[in-house]
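User: I'm writing a tutorial on reading structure tokens. Could you give me a worked example: one chain, its sequence, then its tokens, then a sentence or two explaining what the tokens reveal?
Assistant: Sure. Here is the example chain.
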Amino acid sequence: MSKPQEVTDADFEQEVLKSDLPVVVDFWAEWCGPCHQIAPILESLADEYDGKIKFVKVDTEENFETLSSYGVLSLPTLLLFKEGQPIERITGARPKGDLMRYLDKALA
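And here are its predicted structure tokens:
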């Protein structure tokens, strides 16, 4: 089972910006209810898109540099990166089907 990997300010560039695969970055916090609501959906998607899209998590309580670099103001926020550039921003918990449409578009 593939799970989103924890990424920090220190390894964000290597794990996200230099990734050969598109990357979904989940900006979350322990206190965020909707973040916990969307977590199982992201784990499921990480399994379904294994080898096609990489899934990572950034704890916003500990990684202020990355948080501020991308102007994340609400949680959860998902940023979809392709070739080192953010191509899609999704704010708030969304149903799995909605997220799949964004992911499939990125792969097209």
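What the tokens reveal: The domain at 5-107 is CATH 3.40.30.10 (Glutaredoxin). The longest strand covers residues 85-91.
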